[in-house]
Amino acid sequence: MKRFIILRRFKPDKTWGVLALAIGIGVMAAVGAKRYLSNQLAAIEARATGKTVAVIVAKRDLAKGTRLSADSLAVRPVPQKFSHSVAVMPEQFDRVDGQVLAYPVKSGEMILWGLLEDKKSPSFSARVEAGRRAITVPVDEINSISGMLEPGDTIDLMVTIERKDKKTTFPLLQSVRVMATGQRSSADPKSGARRRYSTVTLDTSPAQAQRVIVAREAGKITALLRNPEDKQAIPNAAGDVAALLGIKGGEEQLAEGDEQQIPVLYGGRSGKFPPEALKLGQTLSAEASTRQGDWGAQIPAPAAPRR
Question: What is the pTM of this model?
Answer without folding.
Answer: 0.41
